[in-house]
Amino acid sequence: MTWVLVLIIIFAYLFFILFLGSWAGRGRESSIVEYIAASRSLGFVIMYFLMGGAIFSAFAYLGGPGWAYSKGGAAFYILGYCALGLVPWWLWAPRALRAGQRFQYVTQAQLFSDRFQSKALSVIIAVVSVLAFIQYITLQMKGCAYVFEVASEGRIPFWAGALIAYLVVLIYVFYAGLRGVAWTNVFQGAFMVVTAWVLGLYLTYHLYGGPSEMFRQIAQANPTHLLVGPGTKMSFAAFASALLVSVLGFSMWPHLFMKAYTAKSERVLKQTIVLYPTFAIFLVPVLFIGFAGIMQVKPDELGAPDRILPWMFSHMQFHPIAVGLVLAAALAAAMSTQDTITHAAGSIFAQDFVEVLKKEKHSDREATLWVRISVVCFGAVSYMVAIFGGQTLVALLLGAYGSIVQLLPLAAATFFWPRATKAGAICGILAGVLYNYAIVLKIIPKFWDIHAGIQGLVLNFIVLIVVSLLTRPMDRVHVRKFVTL
Amino acid sequence: MSSEHEKDGYGITLFRPGTPHNAKIRGIVFFIIFCIITVVQSCYWLFANTVRPFVLGMPFGMFFIVLFITVEFAVLVILYFLESENMEEKGDV
């Protein structure tokens, strides 16, 4: 029975990752700076894969081909934004790194709440972050569930598929903290990229004799599929604003922003940013997989478009070992994002919510235990949401971006505008987040098909500036510490 | 000597005080270049919303985007080497 062999490969892979991730944590002391920031010691290769794993998520690996299959040209925005996503980090990361070294920060909210002297801000950021994380991680869990469903030919139910890979992640994150995340990401990153190229190019050549012929057939069957704008699946305004909000918001994701604290030097950060567009190039054959599926299966038969990648090669009569490896790579994509997010969610909830609200400070060991507990709680809550929620993968992620991009004015104000005040910061982020949700929940109409997050962001900046200018400036020596980093 | 808007210490401060003039110009120039690249990527459809010609196997729109990704990469490499001398190594706080 081929599906049995496929599952054996997948489970063997999961055991390997569990071992690798857990082994990374052996012999490390239990401290906040070690658990959350790997003692500020990471070098370029690890940073590159740690940050790259964020792109090669279930979004890019399953949702991307899903969009290529169902929406065609609209999927191109993924390439553009993945290449540009870390460029804004060039502005934030070196400054955050120095701030972390000087003032001992390990999370993003610690930087902003220190600058604006506000515990309330820390709590707001923690809540916004964790909610956005839940949206992001349910996406990954759904991706894993699809993989298991396809691998087992429907025998493994959705709830079990979502759980299995995530349990592996929870165990090594709980035990090994960021080191577990880092080591597994290096392996999973390389594995995913190689698999993407092999599979994408193989399918394109095997089924069509090459990409040109494949696209020629697609264009013939559906002349507007490879375009955007009127008459296609994505308007000009939606494309442009989706790309823009993704580029502005990418480096503001707390789990990525806080990686600035983990690097051993500014040079490592900049090397990572320079090499980052390679991950966008690595995505090209992944999109080919989605395009290759258009002439192979009808949408009604496929069901959710995000299943196109697992569907494609489970129906390609590949040897079960190959099928198992490719599906394992899809799991790798999801897990390499789940671990970073879960680790960050636990860290943020414990440090920026629990610690902030407690009267007496925990000891370092206690604080680290609280992070571990938060990791597990976050996992449980997200899992519940994954099982009982429902939207296609990419649409889910675009919604989450709208909340996260509201953190951008805080970064700009912290590093460049000493006149920004606590009131301005709090009012700005609340205005932006609430406005974004009002649009997403359809309480307010969406103007001209422009992404809700962008609209919230504009309001956010306006409120930040106006309220800051109307309130008393903060202590000059204090605020100048942040612009002289 | 402090310029007018930096006098009270609360003005917009784009660069660390003491940054050489060349470095400031470089920072602003590259910032503008990346803004342009971002606009081109988000509005690629103004220039390349067509299927043909196929280049490197890809429909022209996709090729255009990939082309600009390589342009962006080249710009990043240049910026990295220009800033390279001033980068802090481990231990600088």
Features:
heterodimer; A: 485 residues; mainly alpha; Sodium/glucose cotransporter; 23 helices; B: 93 residues; 0% strand; elongated
Instruction: Give the beta-strand count of chain A.
Output: 0
Mean pLDDT across residues of chain B: 87
Q: Label the overall shape of chain A.
A: globular
Q: Specify the CATH architecture of chain A.
A: Up-down Bundle
- Beta percentage of chain B is under 5%
Determine the N-to-C terminus distance of chain B.
26 Å
State the CATH class of chain A.
Mainly Alpha
Identify the overall geometry of chain B: elongated
Q: What is the H/E order of chain A?
A: HHHHHHHHHHHHHHHHHHHHHHH
- The count of strands of chain B amounts to 0
Largest interface: A-B, 58 and 47 residues
Oligomer: heterodimer
Structural class of chain B: mainly alpha
N-C termini distance of chain A: 61 Å
**What is the H/E order of chain B?**
HHH
Flag low-confidence runs of chain A.
Answer: none
Tell me the major beta sheet of chain B.
none
Overall mean confidence score, pLDDT of chain A: 90
Q: How would you characterize this protein structure?
A:
The complex is a heterodimer of chains A (485) and B (93). Chain A has a single domain, classed as Sodium/glucose cotransporter (Up-down Bundle), CATH 1.20.1730. Chain A starts with a helix and ends with a helix. In chain A, helix 4 (58-71) packs across helix 17 (320-357). The mean pLDDT of chain A is 90. With 485 residues, chain A is mainly α. The radius of gyration of chain A is 22 Å and the shape is globular. The relative contact order of chain A is 0.18. Chain A has 23 helices and no strands. By secondary structure, chain B is mainly α. Chain B has a domain at 42-75. Chain B is 54% helix and 0% strand. Chain B has helices at residues 21-42, 45-48, 60-83. The interface between A and B is large, with 58 and 47 residues.
